[in-house]
């Protein structure tokens, strides 16, 4: 079998969809995180152990996990409502400050007195070399009271949303019960539910509109090796049957993407010109995909636009975002 390319999207159509981004609203549900960077210069090797001594210069905070997905959506112009769980701690307050600075609505964040705000603290040199990382987290699943609070927030925040985006980092927010409620609410309200999955939770996502595993996740979930486009097609079909979903998008890095939509499949070759850093690329892909769907695009059209967004973001260092103008430039209009 010779797998087919997804039909191309006209530049004028891509521009029209991107122009609608600013009028769209997305609800993001998932594991929010705070990335903290302690930045300095290496002065010498410690006499206590064979490790570098970093002389502190300054610190930075960035949004991570589902919060980074929300940041990507906001950078593309969308209104964003974020639903998740934080702790009653300094990191939770800082996360709220960072969200407010980006214009992301955080009234859907629930404070759990029994949990820490997921925080990744990195010690980094001025030359962007990471020396160490310390993780602060409570990754056990939230309890019934928090599940009930999450369900209430989803229904409240998603009333005016065009898409619900689930960003599962397996830090305890996306439980089977919470995911069942999100999928059921999406179906009853006629709102698509798109999931960036984690393999241990793969059976939680039944009823979602679309799941977007990367190729490693798809291999693990199906126990299939994915080398060719045919392999990706078979894995996507297996996931569709296992989950009872119609649509699966497998992201394959330098090999592009495979989309199976209502039983029909096709691939997109990767369009990255230079790869500097793949950190956060998956967040950019699912954010752009959700927003293009919210703007009225088909899954094929949304996949094309998300593919170009990925090609932009991997050319930047760190968990970066993409602007609407950058995205339009990847679809040059005929002169």
Lay out the secondary structure:
Elements: H1 11-19, E1 25-30, E2 32-45, E3 52-65, H2 66-75, E4 79-86, H3 90-102, E5 105-111, E6 119-125, E7 130-136, H4 144-157, E8 163-167, H5 176-189, E9 193-196, E10 210-211, H6 215-222, H7 229-243, E11 247-251, E12 257-261, E13 264-268, H8 281-294, H9 299-313, H10 324-329
Parallel strand pairs: 1-4, 1-8, 2-6, 4-5, 8-9, 9-10, 10-11
Antiparallel strand pairs: 2-3, 6-7, 11-12, 12-13
Helix pairs in contact: 2-8, 4-5, 6-7, 8-9
CATH fold-level name: UDP-N-acetylmuramoyl-L-alanine:D-glutamate ligase
Number of strands: 13
Indicate the overall shape.
Answer: globular
Report the order of strands and helices. HEEEHEHEEEHEHEEHHEEEHHH
Low-confidence stretches: none
Rg to the nearest angstrom?
A: 20 Å
What is the straight-line distance between the termini? 38 Å
**In the CATH hierarchy, what is the superfamily?**
Ribokinase
Compute the average pLDDT.
92
- Our count of domains comes out at 1
Structural class: alpha/beta
The tally of helices reads 10
